[in-house]
Amino acid sequence: MIEFQNVSKTYAGDIAALRDVSFSVGDGELVFLAGPSGAGKSTLLKMIAGIEKPSSGVLLINGQDISKLGASGIPYLRRKLGLILQGQGLLLDRDVLSNVMLPMIVIGESTDDARTRAIAALERLNMLDKADAYPLALSGGEQQRVMIARAIVNRPQVILADEPTAYLDRDNAMIVIEALRAFQRSGVTCIISSHDEQFLDQANRVIYLNKGEVTDAWTSANAA
Ligand SMILES: Nc1ncnc2c1ncn2[C@@H]1O[C@H](COP(=O)(O)OP(=O)(O)OP(=O)(O)O)[C@@H](O)[C@H]1O
């Protein structure tokens, strides 16, 4: 369970990115964060990942106040998260398999275990035939699928995806959304930011942000 309680975020220069935001996301939900550019969507995701801290208010993850996590708390939190964030693209000088193995290597898993899990993750995203390719030889949609494989290789409880369909055509975007939905169906919580309204009917819930405030929210009648 992820719970924002009256969270505000002001960046240096007095930029109010979030204002008094309150909502919660239950385990296994698929939630879209919608809203125009600059609404605060990335800031919300970065807070859940422990990259940014609230200026005021409380963010609880599984009942724990993330502002109070110590130096070892953030890496521990990140192990439970799969991140698809802007600016964290694939390493261009490594092939697809090495890119997907990386999160496991970083946390000290053996190369053999990392390879086995990375192969399984690529298989799930239907990308195993590109394991030896380098990222620049892939289409945008294929690169996004590899980034999802990299995000799920650690078997996270929660996937955070910031604009995972940006720059993709509709067919590739649907493949990416379908892949995320498949993880949600297997019990993983997915929080996806998008300013592309065409995918919102795939969500259990949509939370609309504008200028740092929650302006609207709805829950699907078929929500799990
Ligand atoms: N590190 C930062 N320092 C200062 N201001 C920031 C920083 N990050 C974001 N902002 C500002 O905070 C506001 C919210 O930005 P944020 O990136 O969260 O919005 P967004 O909804 O994700 O937008 P986009 O869809 O364009 O990615 C914007 O006004 C942005 O310029």
Automatic annotation (TrEMBL):
Protein name: ATP-binding cassette domain-containing protein
Keywords associated with the record: ATP-binding, Cell membrane, Membrane, Nucleotide-binding, Transport
Domain ABC transporter positions: 2-223
Range of residues in the leader sequence: none
InterPro entries: AAA+_ATPase (IPR003593), ABC_transporter-like_ATP-bd (IPR003439), ABC_transporter-like_CS (IPR017871), ABC_transpr_LolD-like (IPR015854), MacB-like_ATP-bd (IPR017911), P-loop_NTPase (IPR027417)
Keyword Acyltransferase: no
GO MF assignments: ATP binding
